Amino acid sequence: MMIKVGIVGGSGYGAIELIRLLQTHPHVTIAHIYSHSKVDEPLKLTFPHLQHIMQHFEALTVDNNDCDVIFLCDTSTRK
């Protein structure tokens, strides 16, 4: 059984490390990579070393509910 994963904050450093780890896992498929600042941009433009990943960044909406697991890699700011 494949586990469908979504990653929120997909354009950050934490997310890229998570993508690198998850793409080698035999039971995981990365279903969605969310980024509010790079919507519809190909992942390979932000991370040229990931030319083999053909996904685009997506906007996070409540309709994107087909993931089994969602990782939150968004930055946090304190004001």
What does this molecule look like?
By secondary structure, the chain is of the alpha/beta class. Helix content is 18%, strand content 22%. The chain contains 2 helices and 3 strands. Strand 1, helix 1 and strand 2 (28-34) form a beta-alpha-beta unit. The mean pLDDT is 85.
Which helices and strands appear, and what pairs or packs with what?
Blueprint lengths: L2 E6 L4 H10 L5 E7 L8 H4 L22 E4 L7
Parallel strand pairs: 1-2, 1-3
SS-based class = alpha/beta
Q: In DSSP terms, counting alpha (H) and pi (I) runs of 4 or more, how many helices?
A: 2
What is the terminal separation in angstroms?
43 Å
Q: Please list the strands of the largest sheet in the order they lie side by side.
A: 2-1-3
Rg computed from alpha carbons, rounded to a whole number of angstroms: 12 Å
Question: Major sheet, described briefly?
Answer: 3 strands, parallel
Organism: Staphylococcus aureus
Domain Semialdehyde dehydrogenase NAD-binding: 4-73
Enzyme class: oxidoreductase
GO biological process, one term: L-arginine biosynthetic process
Summarize, please.
The protein is α/β, with parallel strands linked by helices and 79 residues long. The chain has helices at residues 13-22, 43-46, and strands spanning 3-8, 28-34, 69-72. It has a domain at 1-30.
